[in-house]
Prior knowledge:
Elements: H1 2-12, E1 17-26, E2 33-39, E3 42-48, H2 54-69, E4 76-81, H3 84-90, H4 99-114, E5 118-123, H5 131-144, H6 157-193
Parallel strand pairs: 1-4, 4-5
Antiparallel strand pairs: 1-2, 2-3
Helix pairs in contact: 2-4
Amino acid sequence: xxxxxxxxxxxxxxxxxxxxxxxxxxxxxxxxxxxxxxxxxxxxxxxxxxxxxxxxxxxxxxxxxxxxxxxxxxxxxxxxxxxxxxxxxxxxxxxxxxxxxxxxxxxxxxxxxxxxxxxxxxxxxxxxxxxxxxxxxxxxxxxxxxxxxxxxxxxxxxxxxxxxxxxxxxxxxxxxxxxxxxxxxxxxxxxxxxxxxxxxxxxxxxxx
Length: 208
């Protein structure tokens, strides 16, 4: 698999290309996330917003590479990513989610193309020993462990819906608990008083 991946990379990469490897990282336990792009010994790393999806971190990594490549002079930009979902998202004619992130990336691609330069995005398999991919993977993990968020990412539509669903479920649970508490209080009142309120004749007011 590694040899096949290296041969494929060599076939699509021109000698005078600006070459990048990108990757994203999500820690499921802490919710921390990060993105990284690697080129010629340079690491471009960002600690992305907590609870970003894997797709979002991969897209940010691609964005980092393109932002850096925009200021270079090589006629071809070769970007290698192990995210099929990221490449598919960028090919959607009418994206329905992560629209802001995708639009930003497409805008940078168009800006580089306007310079008369070409951008190639190539999918590579992950964790097969491709050095650039492994380096980007390690850099993204380090970025996720950074002390503070350096690249804010807006929640996706799916995340917003999931949050709303959780909030609604929590509200329903809280309301149910309140109703149950009221039922218990009502039952206690009935058992203790047999619904007999305080008789007016039992009330005495001391005159001054």
